Amino acid sequence: MTEPAASPINPANTLGLDYRALADALPYRGPVVDIHTHVTSPKAAELYMDVAARFNVVKTFTMTGLDNARKVQPVMDKKVEFICVPDYLKRDQPGTFTTRWLDDIRAFREEFGSRILKLWAAPRVIDMAEETPDFGPDDTPLDSPLRRKGLDLAYDLGYRVFMVHVGDPDTWFATTYKDASRYGTKAQQYEPFERLLNDYADCTWIAAHMAGYPEDLGFVQGLLDRHPNLVVDTSACKWQVRELSKHPEAFRDFCVNRPGRVLFGTDIVASEQMNQVDYDLYASRYWALRTIVETDHDGPSPIVDPDLHKVDPDVPEHSTAHLRGASVPEALWPTLYHDAAEKLLEPVGGL
Ligand SMILES: [Zn+2]
Q1: How far apart are CA 205 and CA 119, in angstroms?
Q2: C-alpha of residue 329 to centroid of ligand 1, in Å
Q3: What pLDDT is attached to residue 297?
């Protein structure tokens, strides 16, 4: 008799956790706003809504290409708001990041009342430009003429919140981006960003993924201090778990010292197109990030983190990071999970 094949371990749940029970056991019982997701298809949206409800998510902001936004909207209805992005699933088609993007900025506003526009400027954008017909090297900088054209159009249409992805994990700068003459240093990524923060000072800017620098919260603090129009979100779960767990006290102090400047977000990708339809995949992101905020948990993360192997090939490929809770004071939870997003959107109609 042959042994039955072991069922493959879910990289979002290596510990075999019951995320439904864990969701119910989290101490914060109030409403949660997720300011940063990518929900791209109706079927994924349905499953996502199930998970989101379990974690008390009352409103989800998603970056979804225009065509799929039209399909996802009826499923999520009043619980969704679309953040305007180019349609990355159509990256091979000319115009996606140029003329079509400008059209989409208008369409998102007119059809969905979008108020947030996202700019993506990870150093990888340089590679993308080489593969994209009409989006070239001159267009890649965060403050390029093309991007400013989009920002100005958005501003004229009434958008008042801009989200950016600037930087990337230190693990990437140590590996993929080692060639600083091509990608720039990590510090250099922030130069065009600070110019935009100054030039669009009457707009609020959300710097995703702890401003791309959970490794150095002192640096992020400096950005916040220099720019009163800047907030950050907690999204990119694996990255945040890996780095914030190295200095949970610093994360707690960061939240305490600048209340209202940290918004809750996950970066969940709920997508049939990208084969990301799985209860535990979505639930693991809510559980891990909320566990960092609300508890003093100290143990292995249940989520495989490929960057551990990426920076150190001696580390096995399916390793998980350590997860240490920061015990952010309970009095700050409503701000972090809900009120900060509400306040941010108050001048443009509220949540
Ligand atoms: Zn994202």
Answers
A1: 11
A2: 27
A3: 98
Helix (H) or strand (E) holding 322: strand 320-324
Q: Strand order of the sheet with strand 80-83? A: 80-83, 57-63, 32-39, 268-270
Q: Are the beta carbons of 262 and 336 closer than 8 angstroms?
A: yes
Distance from residue 5's CA to the centre of ligand 1 (Å): 35
Please, where are the H alpha helices in the chain?
A: 19-25, 42-54, 66-76, 99-112, 125-131, 145-157, 170-173, 180-183, 190-199, 208-211, 217-226, 237-244, 248-257, 279-294, 306-311, 333-334, 340-345
Reduced to 3 DSSP states, what percent helix, strand and coil does the chain have, rounded to the nearest 5?
Answer: 50, 15, 35
Q: Are the CB atoms for 166 and 195 separated by under 8 Å?
A: no
Residue-range domain boundaries for the chain: 33-293+331-348
CA 340–ligand 1 middle distance (angstroms): 19
340 exposure class (CB count in 10 Å sphere: 0-12, 13-18, 19+): buried
210-267 per-position pLDDT tens digit: 999 999 999 999 999 999 999 999 999 999 999 999 999 999 999 999 999 999 999 9
Tokens in use for 58?
A: 């009352």
**Interior/surface letters 26-49, b for 16+ CB within 10 angstroms, e for the rest:** bebeeebbbbbbbbbbeebbebbb
Angle at 66 between CA 64 and CA 67, to 5 degrees: 105
Of 83, 26, 23, the residue nearest 52 (C-alpha):
23
Helix axis angle for 66-76 and 42-54, nearest 10°, is 50
* Apex 284 CA angle, 305 and 79, nearest 5: 130
Cα 162 to averaged position of ligand 1 atoms, centre (Å): 13
pLDDT band at 79 (very low <50, low <70, confident <90, very high): very high
Per DSSP, the three-state class of 5 is coil
Distance from Cα 165 to the centre of ligand 1, integer Å: 8
What are the tens digits of pLDDT across the range 299-313? 999 999 999 999 999
Query: 33-293+331-348 adopts what CATH topology?
Result: TIM Barrel (3.20.20)
The verdict on pTM exceeding 0.70 is yes
